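Q: Convert this sequence to structure tokens.
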Amino acid sequence: MLHFALSIAVTLLAATSASSFNPATDAQGKADPTVCKKVVSAEPGAKPYQMCMTKAEWAAKKKADAKNPNRIVCRYEDSTGNRLKSYKICMTAAEWIDQRQRERDSIEQIQRKVCVAGGGC
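A:
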């Protein structure tokens, strides 16, 4: 929810700065053009919306987001037994790292099991 509110605040800030004075200029004194991208919040059922910022603002946002372990990361995973159906899973970046580590640990545990002849596996 905080991520969604923050995204709206950035959108409103970009919209008001685009309509008024734009301090972002390149070396030749020309205004840095805004770049609009579709973004989606992590809330269930959220639809994509358009966010407009300058290239420098997008780069700064991407760099800041990459460092934040509490950012929401959504991935689409295929449904088992159905090639056409997938579902969206959203977790924080730290939760994705924890899940990946748990999966690795369980795979290593399975691989370390030793099958004994006559005892079963």
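Residues 2-67 form one domain.
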